[in-house]
Protein 1
Amino acid sequence: MTLEVQKILEGDQLSGARLISLLEKRDRRGIEMLQAIYPRTGQAFLVGITGPAGTGKSTLVSRMIGHLRGRGLRVGVVAVDPSSPFSRGALLGDRIRMQGHETDPGVFIRSLASRGETGGVSRAAREAALVMDAMGHEVVLTETLGVGQGDVAVARCAHTTAVVCIPGMGDEVQAMKAGLLEIADVFVVNKADREGAEELAHLLETDVVMSRPPQGEWRPPVVRTVALRNEGVDRLVDTLFEHRRHLESTGRLAQRMAGSEFHFFRQLVLEMAAEALLTDSAELARLRDDLGRRAIDPYAAAETFLKQRLLFKA
Amino acid sequence: MTLEVQKILEGDQLSGARLISLLEKRDRRGIEMLQAIYPRTGQAFLVGITGPAGTGKSTLVSRMIGHLRGRGLRVGVVAVDPSSPFSRGALLGDRIRMQGHETDPGVFIRSLASRGETGGVSRAAREAALVMDAMGHEVVLTETLGVGQGDVAVARCAHTTAVVCIPGMGDEVQAMKAGLLEIADVFVVNKADREGAEELAHLLETDVVMSRPPQGEWRPPVVRTVALRNEGVDRLVDTLFEHRRHLESTGRLAQRMAGSEFHFFRQLVLEMAAEALLTDSAELARLRDDLGRRAIDPYAAAETFLKQRLLFKA
């Protein structure tokens, strides 16, 4: 084991940050270090916090950090949301939301550039969480933007996912019903002191949660918070741990983790396949020309191309 | 050529809709039909309309349809946004936004289920646009939600992409600057009668547009609209065609189309590879178990797995 790997396992923040940067750049050494620390992962409680911009996720995460620290837990934060103050660095108004956590040695916050393909982001987020896990953080919070397709991928890495909504989002919630149900283990109605909070909570409790086919015994509870005033956040943290205990007691945690690791394995296979198959070549340049002139159709081209490169095994 | 293919090429809406449904289900017959019509595609002007929920994209699209129809053009619309009234069907309040286009034989609107992986959505959107193209629509508008990673993929199929913002989105625009620049050929400040419209337009015109490295001669113009009152929409349509002419006159249209077809080819190769490599098997089930127990690390597992299946050719 190299010294750098040792330092990561001891929780050294600089070494952890360096590894996450290497991984973001898809540096080969980063992958090797991740493989070295991998056996020490699988301990942290991985929590996803997702919801559209403007729902106050970052303030909520900041408050959650406070409560988790109060319980003596070390907390890692992966911010994927480009509009997050964690991502932008602590700007003027954001200092309030950071609550001084940036100087607490028990808190490790990293933001990820979210440009590029969705697959890349969800991979980088998962890898950052693995690093924080290996560093000894008992809880890793991953903050992601929106309730779109990409978030499903990020949610797949989490043990427990909280979806944050605010009053006035009723229409959006209705439209997103299916997507929400796919990922939410807990719903948060933040800014619950605003008008329309009860309607939204009611909508979530009835229409959304009740329409979910019972899986095990868990029905996503709806937690009301006012993150700015630190209200309801302790209960939210309790609820997340309740869900974790539920997963453990029903054996679904092991199932979820296996699913998550397998999903990641598939993602890696496809990434490596893309690299092996689609790295620039004279043949690909020719194909690009032919495709541009519409001299061949892309379906036939893809099929022929692949047939020459895959060992189809039964 | 089958009768069904013939009918699509003649613009029959029922046949077109049937094909799009087959393609959404990834039905083999759908792909074959798409291959049959493919030589007749490449004629339509493909326009992407993207922006967060609540920016009035659907109303804008509806108004654009009106203006395009007024110019005697047949219009196809692909709605990927799950919150779009086009997607939800014409609900009560949405009838206004539909403007009766649903009964105009020169307008063909299809919404796509946007659940599942981003790749699947962008593929389905592209294929639906191809069908509309082959049906003889001179313009195909694709409406997508948000300015996230998935939208970059959808934008890649369009010749011209308009990004819709509304007053009050300054922070979001700042945070998304890089992503916006990647996809916007035209910016739309919709609801331009609201307070803050000039600030937003100014922000886009200075900070965002001016920070863009000059590519050819085009700098994304900022068009102000009030879609609800049908203001500025004609100018928006003019601007889109201006961009189209710019692409044609500089040779960048051919370049963009080649890039887009090649991107699609890559996507197909990876999808087919995924199917060939990762279809359920006893070996994969064993791997899933091993991964779940963390008995192997996913990186090593993926590498080994792939090595046995790929013919690496130089």
Protein 2
Amino acid sequence: MNTFGSKFRLTTFGESHGVAIGGILDGVPAGLRIDAEFLQSELDKRKPGGKYATSRKEADAVQILSGVFDGLSTGTPIGFAIFNANQHSKDYDNIKNLFRPGHADFTYFAKFGIRDHRGGGRSSARETAVRVAGGAIAAMLLGEFGVSVRSGVFGIGDLEARGLDFDFADESEIFALDKELDTAGKNLILQTKENGDSIGASVLTVINNAPAGLGEVLYDKLDARLAEAMMGINGVKGVEIGAGFKASKMLGSQNNDLMRDGKFSSNNCGGILGGISNGEQIVIKTYFKPTPSIFKDQETLNLSGENTICALRGRHDPCIGVRGSVVATAMARLVIADMLLLNASSKLENLKKIYS
Amino acid sequence: MNTFGSKFRLTTFGESHGVAIGGILDGVPAGLRIDAEFLQSELDKRKPGGKYATSRKEADAVQILSGVFDGLSTGTPIGFAIFNANQHSKDYDNIKNLFRPGHADFTYFAKFGIRDHRGGGRSSARETAVRVAGGAIAAMLLGEFGVSVRSGVFGIGDLEARGLDFDFADESEIFALDKELDTAGKNLILQTKENGDSIGASVLTVINNAPAGLGEVLYDKLDARLAEAMMGINGVKGVEIGAGFKASKMLGSQNNDLMRDGKFSSNNCGGILGGISNGEQIVIKTYFKPTPSIFKDQETLNLSGENTICALRGRHDPCIGVRGSVVATAMARLVIADMLLLNASSKLENLKKIYS
Amino acid sequence: MNTFGSKFRLTTFGESHGVAIGGILDGVPAGLRIDAEFLQSELDKRKPGGKYATSRKEADAVQILSGVFDGLSTGTPIGFAIFNANQHSKDYDNIKNLFRPGHADFTYFAKFGIRDHRGGGRSSARETAVRVAGGAIAAMLLGEFGVSVRSGVFGIGDLEARGLDFDFADESEIFALDKELDTAGKNLILQTKENGDSIGASVLTVINNAPAGLGEVLYDKLDARLAEAMMGINGVKGVEIGAGFKASKMLGSQNNDLMRDGKFSSNNCGGILGGISNGEQIVIKTYFKPTPSIFKDQETLNLSGENTICALRGRHDPCIGVRGSVVATAMARLVIADMLLLNASSKLENLKKIYS
Amino acid sequence: MNTFGSKFRLTTFGESHGVAIGGILDGVPAGLRIDAEFLQSELDKRKPGGKYATSRKEADAVQILSGVFDGLSTGTPIGFAIFNANQHSKDYDNIKNLFRPGHADFTYFAKFGIRDHRGGGRSSARETAVRVAGGAIAAMLLGEFGVSVRSGVFGIGDLEARGLDFDFADESEIFALDKELDTAGKNLILQTKENGDSIGASVLTVINNAPAGLGEVLYDKLDARLAEAMMGINGVKGVEIGAGFKASKMLGSQNNDLMRDGKFSSNNCGGILGGISNGEQIVIKTYFKPTPSIFKDQETLNLSGENTICALRGRHDPCIGVRGSVVATAMARLVIADMLLLNASSKLENLKKIYS
């Protein structure tokens, strides 16, 4: 339901225009240094603002409520909250009784019979701030083992990056993976925004230095868990691992990653074989649809099922894939941290190292 | 770990060349007619044999061991087993000490420190027979609500179906979705097989008549669970929902599915909005890599890490995506059945219908 | 870990002397009226203060952060927090480096290698306020079906109630189940407190009007889940259902509950047969040890393993069983609410009522 | 549902008079020697037969179907089955349409609306053979760390053992913990049996050498999990840890376990403080009601709700607590194995031992 992960486990709450959003991160091993500054800086990457995102103003200041003592994790759950500051719920009064196209309005109403019209309520991407917070703490754990996760935008509409420079992406306002995409992408986003429209994007995520052996047999495979994590991000419609869709067009003799001199000669598998990491770079591509909120009149139904027109106002991202890049990193971190913990008891010899 | 689903829950065991494979299906509501003939017929679709699959001979006769009385489910777990008949473990003696490229040999060894070299052991696609059995029982449950799941192959290598005829696919030996793909695909598979090679494929799965409201907020979204289910099938490297990765190139004004006269005007979202079904057809595409087992000499390492050559013998599918089509149907059925059960308590009014 | 329940699921965080305690209640069906006043009044029953409990002053004001809109549950998780007001962490400075006898100090240190000495940190009974909050919302759900849970103290030290008057218990400052226990119990508690000592107690919990059929086959039996819930309350060392320990001394012909004229003639089983409710009153007895915090010098070890003397100061309950009575009610409510939801899909005919 | 444990996880299936019972044990670390002889010998302890148990003849021969290769666990799930041999389903024809007093007949019918009258179906204690098998494999794992679990009968009706000799209990046909109970208990059981009646019993279980630190904060406490495990055994109505319900009559100064010279001076807590093991012997008492099957006419209802008389025939244990002793051992083993695995990631330093 609202819990992600099994041993490293994030449970979240909160709506876009409610009092607060937040979460409980359970299973953090004791003795981990919790770097509050890093935590906030990760939230700052995702937070709204700037020309290429929504103009909603949220400091996204995260407050740790438990689970940390003298700067170290205690092994007990880390509770945290981000209080909402800049709700403009009135922006939504005019859509109170209709279903916004492309949004979850219709399906939430079908499921719950209740309409929380204020900015999408729980279905809003605002909740992803909580994932980013959880992912930041996961990153602290992963850092202890030299594992790092990086993401960047490699496609916006029909534009595609040629280079894959994560350092560049970190500096880019739109997390573009090369200079050309950065320039052309910004133009495209602004132009789309001016047209009252929105645009799709795609994100590349890599996990460096993950040890071989992560992923549980047989229904917690690493690739399955990553696919679940990525597909669960707001607006995602496709996920690939390694060669991905292209693998379906290949011959076995092209696709198989041979081994030689102690290592793999290629990485079509994207670092995962049989659902378990092989020690190579883990490579994931995630495809985002355009933001459903656009400023054009759209046909839709009202709550009584009658035809009507949806005309949005308010503040919206013209390209959710951009901030989605930060969330993709967070989700990959959460998955890998969980898998590290789960894998700890895969072999009797591992347990003997602990209980001896 | 080896359990799939939360309320409609399949736990499986078994290795390719072990004594038996089987499972326990928990959460089947009491009073469901269990059609043993249909169950076996579903297994027959997946079972090995024929020109386009491995020549291993397995009747895949499934034996129900519990949970059914007088032809009806009792509400208690349905245990079942398929005893392996045609193990040729000796076929694998020559690869006992090396890692087959593209297989899970290396990663299982990294994870467990144990080598069960007999046909891939647990990582073999043979285990998917158990999923098909579980999926068949799920189909009986879904049938009570008019929900049906269908799959077919829409791509083999560079070939792609133009039509999408599931009735045709049901009759095709390679589950091809149109006549042209059936003919050309068979040729391509045979030719690839003669070359000692293998080929990738892609599968389309649709779910008809699923009620709106399925999918749990917020980490058991229907699309996330489907992505997990599909990516967890042996050899899958990519999953799309609805417009899929093409959505990442679209404008919001193109991608949004408008509503009019009580229904959706398009289905780019593939039947899922905000992770919850909207009552439209649910559309999933699953991309399979080529079978890793090929009959060409391949560079690899032995268990001591030294360079060696892998030369396989034995019986293998030239295109795992073909039988993967049957497994995709099974996984979608398991997910939808689980979601139906989970959703039963979404509204207070649903509970009142039961406890009154 | 820090999550209780499967479909009606409470996840909690917080330490005795941290910033806040709180929780996320997931799985609340949409459309339930959330009575904030009742919620607070339930917390007030458990809150510290008075002659017979610790003198720590906490308003225990609970703040709902999400999941409720226009007074109704929305089906999304209900996040809530109780900010700590009256921490006297300095009271604990002198025990910073030693293990308090009877407390979890030693075991938490063994498990986590970290010492949060401030009032027991996570192991403090302060966390039970969160359970009471969750239980109060469960009570709102149960109320829709006429189910109620009541608890009272039936034993304090060697004193035992003769009558079982829950209305009286509700008014008693020590939740005593009859007048005699109320009078004698208060005296005993005060006298024990004056001696710098503490005393054990026992609590009776009954669940009225629970429908027959609750409890999952076979490892989520209702009695097993209740036993887990009660044994997990701070200080509990024993749990009985129905005739309990005494059943082990009985003959089958004495213990079996016969049926006649449409109902059970006795209730030795305590409303549960084979782990499933039978429609009779569910009866649970829970036994609390004396509060481990006493004001006598006690031998113990310091963190280096050397002998030392523990001399406590601070504010402590002389009899944790008293407030434990409120927590027992909360836990029973949480279990029954979970079981109601889980049972909703036990029969095909139940599902048909929903999906039709 | 039908799964016990989280990381060391047993899922079971099967009915008393079905084709087979069995289970899937998931999470067994790779590299554990699986001693098939020991496994069978543990099942033999529980198996029916002899003067003091039911005369149903079952070899209870357990067949391992997966997860073991060359005598070692592979890390993949261990599937196993016990085929039923000696079903006398006809013995139950006369109770087909009525509810046996003290049994789960009524509640299963209320829950599922289906009647599997053959020997109680899933609710039969026959399923506990599967738990014993799972517990035996758990014992192999625990043995690697020097942990052992032992149980014996300490009470039968009003008789109580004075000594607690587990070696003696192992040799006793009724697992009595001393010679006097053995002699008097056998007489009492036989006499009760001749009277067509049955008798309750109580079982003491101890866990030796469990490391300190087992038990998860805060809803997977070790004592809560043990209480759940024991209360879930057929016929159990009460569970105590350590001083148990006597603790509710004690003063804190009597009950607290002091520490001196590096160890605890007493063990009233039964080896568990704050839900976490403290390294002392873990002590659990489990109370069994008398077998509900007795050979006396008993008032009951038929499936139409009319008064009728239940007159049983067939083969039944006169004292289920006796064989319950073997099951108590199994459940404690399963819990401790699970807790060992869960605890492996409690500290960052533990993970560093593995991933370095």
